[in-house]
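Progress note, project year one: complex with glycine.
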Amino acid sequence: MKVLVVGNGGREHALAWKIKQSPLVDKLYVARGNAGIWQIAEKVDISPTDIPNLVKFAKEEKIDLTVVGPEQPLSAGIVDAFLEEGLKIYGHKKDAAILEASKVFAKNFMKKYNIPTAFYETFDNEKEAIEFVKKMGTPIVIKADGLAAGKGVVIANTFEEAVDTIKDMFAGKFGEASKRIVIEEFLDGEEASYIAMVKGEKLVPMATSQDHKRVFDGDKGPNTGGMGAYSPAPVITPEIENEILEKIMYPTLKGMKEEGRELCGFLYAGLMIGSKGINVLEFNVRMGDPETQPIMRRLESDLVKHMLDILDGNIGKVEPKWSDKWSIGVVMASKGYPGKYETGKVITGIEEAEKDPDIVVFHSGTDIKDGKIVTAGGRVLTVTAVGNTLKEAKEKVYKAVEKIHFEGAHYRKDIGDKGIKRLENLNG
Ligand code: AMP
Ligand code: GLY
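Model obtained:
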């Protein structure tokens, strides 16, 4: 069969890498991809958000299955457009994708269906927002309503910082996305990502994982799209997983169905597990980036078969098989990210790093210029390793990272540490 992957990032490289291994797949296309994905899939020069041309391409090429990576095409209605033409596509329809596309929608939805989340209010003007911060105190969390690539969330530690953030947001720092804002209580604890393949009221869990949102070691500095992840996440014990399923995942599926916004695709709950129990920080209607990269390294069964079974109404048959190994992904980013950064820096050392069979380097923002692989985004690569222990995976991944170079590259050095520490404590 012919499969088309839509998207340009590290998540899409990991999905394409896994899809390519399926015996069901004869031909793999990517729109538009990056320098890494083009090594394993045929490049289709159409932007992931150019829906009319993607539909036209899929019809002309008789694509049997389209897999959507990022949120933007989902919330712009790519799935609705493909289904109208009778084309098979894995992902949520526009009316369901609002669960990620609007934080105001997501928070109101969680309140209505009793899904645990931080106390909050929504605002469309500065004055009331500032009054609320005065009442609540700091630290406090301020979120742009719309999509902002993981950067529209600010944790303000002082009143002044909160006021500046509110002013910036209403002044259009994130464009339309910050015309409305959510302000919510700060929750402490440890974050984890819980992702499942879902359809209607049924789900199949993916392996657990933990992302690292802040740019610097020790969870310092501003939020990014994610600087690294590992799988599984020891913070999600079997008891905690049960609670996530019973109090969060199933009620979300049921609630969305009741709202007439039935889910079909990946559902990702970003969680905070801490003194106030398990709370949802956000929902995403897609796989996480970088979580996908380590998760795909551990998936032993056929992702394409799983997606087809789900689309054909057989989710009950889907039983993903996971490797017992641990995996880690470390993001190498451009100098300045998550702020302004330059592109076009030559990347070297990927082949050298991949000589170790436990290493796979997934590309995020990369391109080809004069026959060379160059940087083309904020997050450039996710270097992944698998190991028999989390510690071993960490050691391997950093050895590989050190072999890869581009001007200004920066990365966190502590990916995996929280898990390693937790396991050490467990084992005495
Ligand atoms: P979100 O896009 O809503 O998941 O927020 C991005 C990141 O901001 C999260 O992954 C957390 O690291 C942090 N964050 C969001 N909401 C809260 C909260 N209520 N308390 C503490 N940290 C938060
Ligand atoms: N890694 C966080 C996200 O994909 O939203």
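The chain has three domains: 2-94, 119-185, 190-422.
The mean pLDDT is 96.
No further modelling is planned for this target in the current period.
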